[in-house]
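Page 42, continued from yesterday. The earlier attempt failed because a stray header line got pasted into the input along with the sequence. Redoing it now with the clean sequence only.
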Amino acid sequence: MTIATTYMSARDFMGLPEDPTKTRYELVNGEVIVSPAPNYDHAYALTQLLVILATHIHQNDLGQIVSDIDTYFDVNDVRRPDLLFFQKARLNHIFGRYPDAPPDLCIEFLSPSNAAYDQGNKFELYQRTGVTDYWIVDPMSHTAVAYTLVNDQYVEAGRGAHDDVVSFPPFKDLKIPLSNLWRETKTK
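This time it went through. Structure tokens are written below.
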């Protein structure tokens, strides 16, 4: 849902005060939009993967990973990747309230309301702005796909489903058991 009727730059958007209602806003092609809140499966998978990645990143002093913060991509786009990672050599882009450059890795977790957006609009934006690696995790179908940038185009770098164990760039030495990301569903 778009809420702005006039265009805004990334600089103007990032200068706005924090919203006390914690509404998730993004700047998309200069327009302010509201992003829907994640569902339980989305949040569960994100939390599980964040623990795995944060442990690996910290133990190996690789950089920093965070979730769901305003992130500059270009003069008209400020998005909130579900997870974003900056390599140690690029931590200079993290100062103040927000990163001032696209991250090295973005990870998006699909929900029914955002699947097409994350696989289309965000895919194109991350590719165009030089995000080296992009992962799409789908808690509904229990799948994960990794893309890496080659000659300014994303190519598939790996995929897995259900209980596969995967290694995705930029963490090729890390084994991720996908079954740890999916919550057990119970029926009433």
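Notes: The chain has one domain: 37-181.
Reminder to self: strip header lines before submitting.
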